[in-house]
Structures are given as C-alpha cells and as structure tokens.
Design brief:
Blueprint lengths: L6 E3 L31 E2 L2 H10 L7 E5 L7 H5 L4 E6 L2 H11 L8 E5 L12 E5 L5 H10 L6 E7 H8 L9 H9 E9 L4 E2 L6 E8 L8 H11 L7 H4 L5 H15 L11 H11 L12 H13 L7
Parallel strand pairs: 3-4, 3-6, 4-5, 6-7
Antiparallel strand pairs: 1-5, 2-9, 7-10, 8-10
Pfam families: RrnaAD
Family: Belongs to the class I-like SAM-binding methyltransferase superfamily. rRNA adenine N(6)-methyltransferase family.
Keywords: Methyltransferase, RNA-binding, rRNA processing, S-adenosyl-L-methionine, Transferase
C-alpha cells in the first residue's frame, strides 16, 4: 500500500490559519471546514460516552482513533486507555485535539498523525474507534480487516444505510457483496443508532455505530478471489448465478484465467476440449447452484461454490 506523506504532532499546535467565511450554517462547522473531509463533529456527550463504553477498554489498551475531529471522543478514550493514536486529515482539528490535552497527564498518552488514514502507516493497536468520514467508510473497513496483527474490536460510526449493509443477512434486501466480503472476515452487528442532531453540523442522514470483531484466525481464503466471484454474482443479486456469468466480458476473463491456471499445472490448454461455459455449467449442476441466487446464499454457500470453481481451474483474480 502506497505510503502517504504524514506529519506527527508531539507539541502544542501552531496558530490557526486565518478563518474563511463559511458557505452556510447548515452545511459547515463554524470553526472548521469539516465538509471538506466529509466530517461531522459529534457533540452529544452521552452518545460519545456510549461509543467509548461499547469498546470495553482496558487500562493496557492501545487505541487507534480515525477522524477525531475536535477530540470529543478522544478525551473520553484517554480516560480509559494506555495510549491513543489519532489519525486526522485536517491540521487545524489535529491541533485542537492536542490543545485539549495540553498540560494534562493525558498529553503523553496521545499521538496525532495528520494524513489520509487509507495511506498512512498504522501502528500496533488493540481497539479502533472511529467517527468515520463518510467518503472513506468502505476503504476504512477493509484496511482494518487486512491489518496484521489482528485487533480485538472496532467500534465504528457510519451512515445508517452503510451500517445496515454491513450487518445485513442473506435473504434480506440489503444483503450484498459488501455484506458478504466483510462478514467473511468479521462478526459485525449494529449497537447504537445516532440521531443526526447529535452532530455539528447535522448530516443529511442518520448514523449508526457498529461493532466489528475480526474472526481469529481469519479464513484461509484469498480475498481477491472471493471478491472477484462476488463482483460477478452480486451484480444482479436476484438473478440466477448462471445468468450473471453471462454478462459481457465475464466468460472471456474466466477463460484467460483458466488458461493461465492450466499452464501453471502443466496441463494442456484444451483439456478435454471443453469450453469454459461447459466447465461452468458442470460445476453449477453438480453443486445444485444452477438456479441459486446470490441474494439467498450465505457465507458457507459462497465458500463452497468458490472451492468448487477452484477445483476445476476457474479463478477470479486477474
């Protein structure tokens, strides 16, 4: 993953830049241009406390906080944890967080990293807590799940629609490629619904807090393969699996991947003179998946089908 330029702050903040006029009271923070980074400052102290309490922090915990804003969550985390690394895009808000703990015992427990969470180096941590900037919701989840060593728990705030997709179950309207990909690697559940008026400025949508607990050890499945298959079959989740494989370009991609696999196995490319469609149909018929639909398949079903494809040399990662 490419390394972004980041800055670590260990001392008092520099004087703030000259204020610019706000574009409007309904979509900007009066102090900081939070709209630029998709952030909304959590102002409700009771909600902030509920989020921190949900993490069940230990005095020995090292916590990663993403998007601390002005530090309303940060100061509550510092009361319970050993150390907090806060990753913040806006230098002015990063300075505000440091200002809040300056001259207190908590000052030595806090490190603020200025930069894009998707790109900066992540230190070791046991717990992640985030009032997530909306535009990095999906990248944040998958960066956390790919991080090693595994963390214990993440308490993450998202737009409610995104949170509902994360926690959706097979057979429900919101079960999707995102749901399956996340739930392959973690147990995820909704724990708190947050009113839009708990933020400054209020977002246009409601929010929810989810608890994400990585499956340990993680399943021995290559994510690119699992996601590649899901990309195809969830393109139209209520359509049959076979029907989704007829989409433009899918068979050509699978044929190229299979030729590569056969060559690596030192098997003839025209093995059994069978077309990729014929191989696919045999797999689907043998597994009784010909009329199956992704919208109804759970994680076990998806893993069994992926394994069956792999046994016949059908792969999904380029």
């Amino acid at each position: 993953m490419p390394k972004a330029t980041s800055e670590k702050l260990f001392r008092a903040h520099k004087p703030a830049a000259k204020k610019q006029e706000a574009s409007g009271p309904t979509n900007t923070n009066p102090l900081f241009n939070t709209a630029r980074f998709g952030q909304h400052i959590l102002k409700n102290a009771q909600t902030a406390q509920k989020i921190v309490d949900a993490a069940n922090l230990k005095p020995t915990d090292k916590v990663l906080e993403v998007g601390p804003g002005t530090g309303n969550l940060t100061v509550k985390i510092l009361e319970k944890a050993k150390h907090v690394t806060a990753v913040e895009m806006d230098p002015r808000m990063a300075a505000e967080v440091l200002k809040r703990v300056q001259g207190t015992p908590e000052q030595r427990k806090l490190e603020v990293v200025i930069g894009d969470f998707v790109k900066v180096d992540i230190p070791y941590f046991e717990v992640c807590i985030s009032n997530t900037p909306y535009q990095i919701s999906s990248p944040l989840v998958f960066r956390l799940l790919s991080h090693r060593p595994l963390f214990r728990v993440a308490i993450l705030m998202f737009q409610r629609e995104f949170a509902l997709r994360l926690t959706a179950r097979p057979g429900t309207a919101l079960w999707s490629r995102l749901s399956a990909n996340v739930q392959l690697y973690a147990k995820v559940d909704n724990i708190i619904n947050v009113n839009r008026n708990d933020f400054r400025p209020p977002p246009q949508v409601e929010s929810s807090v989810v608890r994400l607990v990585p499956i340990d050890p993680p399943p021995p499945v290559k994510f690119e393969e699992f996601d590649g298959m899901n990309r195809i079959i969830f393109s139209r989740p209520n359509k049959t699996i076979r029907g989704n494989f007829q989409a433009k370009g899918v068979m050509k991609m699978l044929e190229q991947n299979r030729r590569t696999w056969l060559a690596m196995q030192e098997m003839p490319v025209d093995h059994e003179n069978e077309s990729i469609q014929g191989v696919l149909d045999k797999i689907l018929e043998a597994g009784d998946w010909m009329e199956s639909r992704a919208s109804k398949m759970d994680i076990d079903d998806l893993l069994k089908m992926l394994s069956a494809f792999h046994e016949q040399g059908i792969h999904f990662a380029s």
